[in-house]
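Dig into what follows:
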Amino acid sequence: MTRPPSRGGGRTLPAFAPHLTTGLIALGLMLAFASSALAHAVTAGDQGYIQEISGVNLIPFIYLGAKHMVTGYDHILFLLGVIFFLYRMQHIAIYVTLFAIGHSTTMLLGVYFNIGINSYIIDAIIGLSVVYKALDNMGAYQRWFGFQPNTKAATLIFGLFHGFGLSTKILEYDIAPDGLVPNLLAFNVGVEIGQLLALGAILIVMGFWRRSSSFFRHAYTANVAMMTAGFVLFGYQVAGYFVS
């Protein structure tokens, strides 16, 4: 893993305060688009279609898996955080593979064994995973605790939680048991296709940004915004849990 000479531009914690302005702006934008943010659940059209079909339907499930990942802003935010300071393709491949192993494992096992986890709780944890990665990118753990968590282990562990988020959504589909395993594998293939599409778009944008002089100047601020978005996602899910 290649890291910049000093994460967060070598800034100390007091420099965190000015960036709260940007964080609050991000918070306001997310609140403004609250209705769309809460629309991450399974759409009524998709759920109705899946409930009407049975047997092996590989293409529809590949499509649904790709759609869920591409429109899954929480997964994409975490993925952005993971590759934010990764420059070499082999490092990106290692971390993305660890994330894929994690979410594929729990997604398949969660659906197959019908392990139901409250969607508000698991989505709140996913929101915290975005907060965790943003703080990691800002070098917060080294400054606060003098300790750097194992980033590969953290990516795998949070991948496991993201997988339970996917399995929870799939269980909402109420898939017919006929053809369950092939359909689940097709859904997982779709998730990986969607992840590669999202990753490709992120890398293109990051590639242009990294070649500009503004990257290191605004990298810290971008991670503050990402952290704020993670807290907003967490807050939405906790609020939803208590009012549901």
The two ends are 42 Å apart (CA to CA). The chain is about 75% helix and 0% strand. Confidence is low (pLDDT under 50) at residues 1-18, 31-40.
